[in-house]
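Repro:
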Amino acid sequence: MLNNISAWFVQELELTLPKSLIGKAISYAVRFRDRLMAYIFSGHLEIGNNLMENVFRPIVLGGKNWLLAGLHDAAQTPP
């Protein structure tokens, strides 16, 4: 089934304009076909990267808050 869909995408890609929205979508599907197949046939792979995003989110959000932490002059307001 997936091989049929993949073959159809390749066939339709030749008939669509590359910069059209459908052309971009089909090109994306063809480009990531191998990764999709790996995901489908391997039951241990996660579909998203939410776990890793949740690990790094506090570091990224805190970076702005911690930028001037520990600097006495940073807490002073200008006259």
